[in-house]
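We include the pair:
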Amino acid sequence: MSNVVQIQNVDRYFGKKSVLNNISMNISEGEIFGILGPSGSGKTTLIKLIAGIDKSSKGEVLVYEKEMPNFTVLSSIGYMGQSDALYTDLTGADNLSFFGALYNLKGKELKDRIQEVAEIVGLEDALSKHVNQYSGGMKKRLSLAIAILHKPTLLILDEPTVGIDPVLRKQIWNQFTDMKKQGTTIIITTHIMEEAEKCERIGLIREGELIALDTTENLISRSQTGKIEDLYFDNEVSS
């Protein structure tokens, strides 16, 4: 399989503060790739570099062989950050229509796709409500619906299911699996170990450094406790 994302010797610093240090990894087409790390470890900064929202201080980030940021690949990317980027004075349907239009979706195609993503995230009965009436969990679900609306081939998600109930989380992960089967590459950060174990490979980040990169199965076997998160406390672990 070809590499959708190629990261080579990437640093990111803000002033004198180093946030990422010498990160290198490749992410393959059709892969569900997890990025794990404690708060402040640099994982959100890393996916912003991949999405083209930020630029590395050193090194190279390629997406579809284009150095990021690059406008030509943005239409292939779906991105969901931790913070909601929604128009709260509009309805859920209006938000989806607005973002769909940005990706040149229109008419029946847009209408049908809005209904599809609303059903995926469990918002089909709330589309006519204004977003300022949504709960925090509903806003997360709407943000996810927007991220997948245009059927991106690369989906980048920063803790997408925080605040979402377990039943809906399972439904959303079933959709991720279906998207993977269709060739979509999914990059996800999560603190939920049950979700981490659904990823095919995982990169563990600690204090801005990639301390492990392997299949989920291998990382579990490398931990004496059988828990991936315990590798953070192993000073001998290496990628």
The beta strands are 3-14, 17-28, 32-36, 58-63, 66-67, 77-80, 154-158, 185-189, 201-206, 209-215. Helices lie at 43-51, 92-102, 107-121, 136-148, 166-181, 193-196, 216-222.
